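Journal club side-thread
Mid-discussion, someone asked how the predicted structure for our own chain would compare to the paper's figures. Pasting it here so we can look after the session.
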Amino acid sequence: MALSAQVAWWFLPFLVPLCLYVAYTDLARMRITNPTVLTMAAVFVVVGFFLYPFDGYLWQLAQLGIVLVVCMILNAAGAMGAGDAKFLAAAAPYVALGDVRLLMALFAAVLLAAYAAHRIARATPLRNMAPTWDSWSTKGRKFPMGFALGPTLAIYLALAAVHGS
């Protein structure tokens, strides 16, 4: 993996709770909140400054802006939700450019598992454990992507902490 194990270990304690919170809020309210993604970005701005050489830090930070612009366009086109776009932008600086293909494969696996788990839970008595969650609604076909996006970033950082360069 291109991401340094040391860098991943520093980010893990900050990001895992935020990623789990993103999954929870998207399941419960179909929302990824602004304070959460702003906190993710702030963690990178502060902690990342000490972990990367200055030019590397700026390139990682530039990924946030690039992904934000692309995701805003996709959101305007109706291809993704605004919360998903904000989360992807805030998560972008944490991903090493050399790991993008790995991250895409990881996301595909997590998305399939999350979708299957969500649909099974929604169609069974498991749904009664959280009967007020907005994502259970069968009126629409929307899926809470934060349920897949949050764990993907957390798993990526955990993998990098163990197998990173």
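Post-session note: The CA atoms of residues 8 and 157 lie 5 Å apart.
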